[in-house]
Design brief:
heterodimer, A: alpha+beta, Cytochrome Bc1 Complex, Chain A, domain 1, 6-stranded mixed sheet, 16 helices, B: alpha+beta, 5-stranded mixed sheet, 48% helix, globular
Chain lengths: 473, 509
């Protein structure tokens, strides 16, 4: 495995853009060569592979030694996310994670834990997101045992103190009130509700759902998702494998593996969805056109990654950015995002533009997405996207913890670890036809969700000219 | 790969980001050098033209982080020219006479006409109500035609293309009040590409697509200030707290200034400030120090230095009475308080770093314990020393968000109670030790990232003239005594020296 990755990185890092650069007729200063014709020494690099050990109870541990600094970093991933929240309990995952951290654990109260961890300068964070949860501890080697004991208790024996729960609920409620003060945050929150309508992912925390939450909800949510087979731990830093395993065993060996994996329905693209409009009196509109893309395990993941790069995530040269920002000065932020997840992907194109150019920007974005399905991209666009993705791939391996963490997440998502080694070659193998097919399959105008937040009284074009408008609160 | 980011690879101008970045830099923690020998690992060289270079070898992965910082920022914008430093930073992504053009001679001919027409158009627009609308229309049309003509010769976004294709990560630039920064991380074998591009843009930048980019910045302002009430409040706060200091003005510029910024001014600004003797480079990663330094000399060594004209900077007169202001907006309340104080490297600035940590670093900090958890009247309260920047005397700030139905007034009183405690009770030894531990551990964590290290080394070198400010930081912090804290609080954190800004919603509860 090491060898394969090293080989692919070597090959890909030395290939440059020679031959595809725009021709230039300008004479250059003699000492300043054509930046497209510089030659580079080869890079030989085999990222270390973490060791993997499965405890008897099913808990999987990834370990990588790194003695550069006197630090130990530990992370976990757990199959506990908001997608598994029971109806009317929106926000439960997030609050559970928060109160695990603040509400005491084992024999220690929450305040005591804060004091211990901060006196050791050992930050612990727990965050239960949409698809899964993660947690981390970073600690100086000398304080490892003390800090890890607390970390393990937080994972296994959180106390969920009532008073701390009340505090976290109140803070979350205030946070929700303040969503309206940040138009972009509000827009992406409401977009999420629209694109995932009818799926658990479209149910969002509300003041009412937070208010109703009680301690039993947290205890039950924790109990049903935190069990050894549903958890993976990555340990890296200034310790030996034996030290790491002893530490983990000491705190996790006696943990019985009781529990069932939770499942949730995958989101589907909406057929002929209306245009969602959220009214807010702001000088600038947020426009998002999104759809459900391929999952990370799909063969389409690679061409779609290239497609997304060309469309909007590939910096200044990407089409949305170049057309809307560079050519027309209509936005500061414009582009696209694509996140390939387990079983599906989240794709969206976005721009923020003044109210008076909202219609123009929406038309431009629609045009760019339409064009992606109807005409093949020029060879140099594909070349740039592939080179960029492959050449920057090396930045996925810049720290031991990053490497171990990636292995952990990949396996958690049911992907083979060779995913990491094969990624550059698979991106490199993407053809223009593949990209076009991906665009045809996933960017179907009947299956897109359009979302606009803004002040329609000032728009240059009525929204109804883009389709049936559904006003959301 | 930038795959999941919602924000664009937004170059720049993340004025607000920088505002925060600077604050973080002060709290972050340089530390125990002897133990980790950072000073021994830093190679420092000064080229004949005055360019300073800091290099650190770290062979963890075959990557390198490259920072260029110029000692120039929004504080150097001329009167009526606010936003100049920031727009220039945007413009430097437009290429050079050899990058971004199909034929520079032809292109330059059109660019000159664009500049003439654009300048004439701006002059007419400046007349305001007395402007000749027909003339404005004619010039705007002419400008548009010239812009399409120029497009024929432009290869757009070439700098971004070159870097991206070669595997760049974190390609970005930022403008602050004090410093303008260009940064990128690359596979370690691509250093020559960086040197080729950056030396070129320090010498021959071409301000192509100028008027379109000026519009982009106006959109940026709309996005990051006009649409976000808390940001508007910060802008108002600084404009109130400073009467004379250049720090009173927003980095991005006032809207009317931005809309009249001209290429001639930006070019002169560039020549004055982006010279090698006003610049620090930091390179951290999988490098060979000697070879890398040779590469830097090869490309940057021939850039001529400029006589940096010493210029007088308006000093902020001592404040003698509280200033209060409010912003009415349809949003939840927000509170900002600031007190004037000396900047680094004065000893008192270190004392305020300690006060900042005491008040708001972590869940056991005084603000969190007493106001967020105890009284439960705020969602968040934090302190920040050294706002908005560090070249000139600055502010110690507290910002906070009251928790409904509690008000900004209640929160303000709670903050003053904590400030008064600083004046009345000496800080306990354990509390100080906790802070030093936290700062030391953070320092060690910062050493584990090429870009983090390059960022800090170059920042302190350019701001203080010596990166060892950072490496000796913890030693200085260790000298701060409970007495120093009481003295600083009594001297500076007083009513006559403070400014208070409150966001008020008159519409609804």
């Amino acid at each position: 495995m090491k060898r394969t990755l090293a080989l692919s990185l070597v090959i890909l890092l030395i290939s440059t853009g020679i031959g595809l650069a725009e021709p230039t007729e300008t004479p250059r200063a003699p000492s300043w060569p054509d930046p497209d014709r510089l030659s580079y020494e080869e890079i030989k690099f085999s990222p270390p592979k973490p060791e993997r050990v499965v405890l008897e109870n099913g808990l999987t541990v990834y370990f990588l030694e790194d003695r550069e600094l006197p630090l130990v970093n530990i992370s976990f991933v757990v199959g506990a996310g908001s997608v598994f929240e029971p109806p009317a309990k929106e926000g439960l995952a997030e609050i559970t994670g928060d109160v695990m951290r603040t509400g005491g654990a084992g024999k220690l109260g929450g305040d005591k834990i804060d004091e211990e961890l901060e006196s050791l300068a050992a930050p612990v964070s727990i965050s239960l997101g949409m698809e899964y949860g993660t947690g981390s501890l970073s600690v100086l080697k000398k304080d490892l045992n003390r800090a890890f004991k607390i970390f393990a208790d937080i994972i296994r024996h959180p106390a969920f103190d009532e008073a701390k729960l009340e505090q976290e609920k109140n803070l979350k409620i205030e946070d929700l009130r303040r969503v309206f003060d940040k138009p972009q945050r509000l827009a992406f929150r409401e977009y999420k509700r629209a694109i995932y309508a009818g799926n658990p992912r479209g149910r969002l925390p509300e003041i009412a759902s937070i208010e109703k939450m009680d301690r039993e909800d947290l205890v039950a949510f924790h109990k049903s998702h935190f069990f050894p087979r549903n958890l993976r731990v990555a340990v890296t830093g200034d310790l030996s494998k034996q030290e790491a395993l002893e530490l983990i065993s000491r705190h996790f060996d006696d943990w019985d593996d009781e529990g069932d994996f939770a499942t949730a329905p995958l989101p589907k693209p909406q057929e002929n969805a209306p245009l969602y409009y959220y009214e807010k009196k702001v000088p600038q509109s947020t426009v998002v056109i999104g759809t459900i893309g391929p999952g990370k395990e799909s063969p389409d993941f690679y061409p779609f990654t290239v497609l997304d790069y060309i469309l909007g995530s590939g910096g200044f040269r990407s089409r949305i950015f170049q057309e809307i920002r560079s050519n027309r000065g209509l936005a500061y932020s414009a582009g696209s995002f694509y996140d390939g997840r387990q079983g599906y992907g989240s794709f969206g194109a976005y721009a923020m533009t003044k109210s008076e150019s909202t219609g123009q920007v929406l038309s431009l974005m629609e045009g760019i997405l339409k064009d992606a399905r109807e005409s093949r991209f020029p060879a140099q666009d594909l070349h740039l996207a592939k080179r960029s993705i492959v050449n920057s791939y090396i930045f996925s391996f810049t720290s031991s913890h990053m490497i171990a963490f990636q292995h952990m997440i990949l396996e958690f998502q049911g992907l083979p670890t060779k995913f990491l080694t094969e990624y550059p070659a698979k991106i490199d193998a993407v053809s223009r036809e593949d990209v076009m097919k991906a665009a045809e399959k996933y960017l179907d105008p009947q299956k897109r969700t359009i979302f606009v937040l803004g002040d329609q009284g000032k728009f240059d074009e009525p929204l109804k000219s883009f389709g049936e408008v559904k006003r959301v609160k | 790969m930038n795959r999941s980011s919602k924000g664009p690879k937004a170059f720049s101008c993340r004025c607000v980001t920088l505002f925060l970045v600077v604050a973080i830099l002060f709290t972050v923690s340089p530390g125990e050098l002897q133990a980790y020998n950072l000073e021994d690992r830093v190679q420092r060289a000064t080229l004949e033209n005055g360019l300073r270079v800091l290099l650190v070898e770290r062979h963890t992965s075959p990557t390198v982080s490259l920072y260029i910082r110029h000692l120039v920022g929004a504080a150097d914008d001329g009167e009526g020219k606010t936003g100049a430093a920031h727009l220039l930073e945007h413009m430097l992504f437009k290429g050079t006479s050899t990058i971004g053009t199909k034929n520079f001679k032809e292109e330059d001919r059109v660019l000159k006409k664009i500049r003439e027409t654009g300048t004439a158009l701006d002059r007419e627009r400046m007349k305001g109500t007395r402007a000749d609308e027909a003339e404005i229309k004619r010039l705007a049309k002419e400008l548009k035609e010239l812009q399409s003509e120029a497009k024929e010769w432009v290869v757009e976004n070439e700098i971004d293309r070159l870097y991206s294709e070669n595997g760049a990560a974190d390609l970005n630039a930022s403008t602050g009040q004090d410093v303008t920064t260009y940064k990128v991380s690359l596979p370690a074998n691509r250093i020559e590409l960086w040197a080729r591009i950056e030396a070129d843009r320090m010498t021959n930048p071409v301000l192509r697509e100028f008027y379109t980019e000026r519009d982009v910045v106006i959109e940026e302002r709309r996005q990051t200030y006009e649409s976000v009430p808390s940001r508007k409040l910060m802008e108002l706060f600084l404009a109130t707290a400073f009467t004379a200091s250049p720090y009173r003005r927003p980095i991005i510029g006032w809207p009317s200034d931005i809309s009249f910024l001209a290429p001639d001014y930006l070019e002169a600004f560039f020549k004055q400030y982006h010279s090698p003797n006003n610049t620090v480079i930091a390179i951290v990663g999988d490098i060979n120090t000697a070879k890398t330094l040779e590469m830097v000399k090869k490309y940057f060594g021939s850039i001529p230095s400029h006589n940096l004209m010493a210029h007088h900077v308006t000093e902020e007169p001592a404040q003698s009475g509280e200033k209060r202001t409010e912003l009415v907006a349809e949003a939840n309340p927000y509170l900002a308080i600031g007190w004037h104080k000396p900047t680094l490297p004065s000893f008192e600035d270190y004392v305020f770093d300690v006060i900042e940590a005491l008040l708001s670093k972590g869940r056991t900090s005084r603000f969190h314990r007493s106001i967020v958890q105890g009284k439960q009247i705020a969602e968040d309260v934090s302190a920040a020393n050294g706002m908005p920047a560090a070249r000139y005397p600055n502010l110690f700030m507290v910002t906070g968000t009251p928790r409904h139905p509690h008000t900004a007034e209640e929160l303000e009183q709670a903050v003053y109670e904590e400030i008064d405690k600083l004046k009345q009770e000496p800080v306990k030894k354990q509390e100080l030790e906790k802070i030093i531990n936290q700062l030391r551990a953070e320092f060690i964590r910062d050493l584990s990232s090429n870009s983090g290290l390059a960022s800090r080394l170059s920042y302190y070198e350019i701001i203080t003239g010596d990166y060892r400010y950072m490496t000796r930081y913890i030693q200085m912090i260790e000298k701060v005594t409970p007495k120093d804290i009481m003295a600083a609080a009594k001297k500076y954190l007083i009513e006559e020296n403070r400014t208070v800004a409150v966001l008020v919603n008159k519409e609804k509860p």
